[in-house]
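Weekly structure sync, notes
Attendees: PL (lead), two postdocs, one rotation student
Agenda item 3: pending single-chain targets
PL asked that the sequence for the first pending target be pasted directly into the notes so everyone works from the same version. It is reproduced below exactly as submitted, 287 residues in total.
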Amino acid sequence: MIPALVLFVACQSQGMAAPLRVAIVLSESSGAYQELVVELKNTLAPEYFVKVAASVEEIPEADLFVAVGMKAAHVLSSHSRPVLNVLIPRAGFEKLKRPPSSTYSAIFMDQPLQRQLALINAVLPNATSVGVLYDSPPTELDTLRKLSSAMHFDLYEQRVDQQHPLAEALSDLLRVSDVLLVLPDNNVYRSDTIRNILLETYRAQVPMVGLSANYVRAGALCAIYSTPQQIAYQAAEAIEDFATSAKLPVPQYTKEFDVSVNTQVARSLGVHVKDAVQLRVEVRRRQ
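Predicted structure, written out during the meeting:
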């Protein structure tokens, strides 16, 4: 049994004979999942009616499912009803067994590569080389190569495998890179490896650009990410559109994002950085 919350949302849509039934399924009932639910409830129109159930086994009939997180996404990928997936990475969505369509879509939690490279440009204007580690080539690797070239970055790639263990691969990569860009690869960046990776980047005086505010708190120089609240707002827009058109938007990245900077790490690396508000404005202009 996968722990989950299911919220049954009834909304009266203009021109509909009956309320739209929406089941919002959470992979977990705490942390970012709960934050998203709170914001979604606050964003949806006041006439929406919300009930809570205990697990995915209790999911009723609904006109639209919202899967929050990968556990819920896996469960609902076998459903024939319309599903909007949120708080999942693009790579995770692409591995689900149901192809995208007007009734099966997603709002990705990770950031588009162009936005991440724009952040590097804004934070480290003198950087000329970007290093990336991965266990297996990401689906967007060709896109990353093209974008890096277009933005005048030399891209250095290092695969982590039996021939190139993590410590060796990281050491080789840091020797040629001005910055380490973290990719969403759970086989490389795990709870038991991230501390050592951060320590090695610090020793080599190579800034790390992380995936979330947690990375920045742990020692990354900066990160660009979307908050659960920002994702919830975009999900609410998709729900409202579905209520009138019976169609979901195409799979997409988040429209809104935040930037975090670790000023202590910046001082230690001798990097002068703008504040997070200035960086967000500059990234939006560059992307």
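Discussion points:
- The longest helix spans residues 228-245.
- The chain is about 40% helix and 25% strand.
Action: rotation student to compare against the earlier draft before next sync.
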